[in-house]
């Protein structure tokens, strides 16, 4: 698979939104989901909050699987 990941702050999302297919939010910023949905046109972008256990265990394989199953 040809996948590109960018780890960015919410304030820089504007620069990457046009090249984003899936937006993964870390569990500690889940509260930003509604703000992001209302601020940006998310018609073409799927959004997922990373499971806190997978995040804590750094289970990248599970996070990737969950994201691809959206």
TrEMBL record:
A biological process from GO: phosphoenolpyruvate-dependent sugar phosphotransferase system
Q: What sequence ranges are listed for the domain PTS EIIB type-3?
A: 1-70
The record, for InterPro entries, names:
PTS_EIIB-like_sf (IPR036095), PTS_EIIB_2/3 (IPR003501), PTS_EIIB_3 (IPR013012), PTS_sugar-specific_EIIB (IPR051819)
- Does the keyword Transferase belong to this entry? yes
Q: Name one GO molecular function term.
A: protein-N(PI)-phosphohistidine-sugar phosphotransferase activity
This protein's UniProt keywords: Kinase, Phosphoprotein, Phosphotransferase system, Sugar transport, Transferase, Transport
EC number, as in UniProt: 2.7.1.-
**Mind telling me which PROSITE patterns this protein's record contains?**
PTS_EIIB_TYPE_3
Q: Which Pfam families match?
A: PTS_IIB
Name the domain of life: Bacteria
The keyword Disulfide bond belongs to this UniProt entry's keyword annotation:
no
Among PANTHER family, the record links this protein to: PTS SYSTEM N,N'-DIACETYLCHITOBIOSE-SPECIFIC EIIB COMPONENT
Protein name per its UniProtKB record: PTS system, lactose/cellobiose-family IIB component
């Amino acid at each position: 698979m040809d996948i590109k990941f960018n780890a960015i702050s919410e304030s820089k999302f504007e620069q990457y939104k046009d090249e984003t297919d899936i937006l993964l939010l870390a569990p500690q910023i889940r509260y930003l989901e509604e703000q992001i949905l209302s601020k940006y046109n998310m018609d073409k972008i799927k959004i997922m909050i990373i499971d806190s256990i997978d995040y804590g265990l750094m289970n990248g394989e599970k996070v990737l699987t969950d994201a691809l199953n959206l």
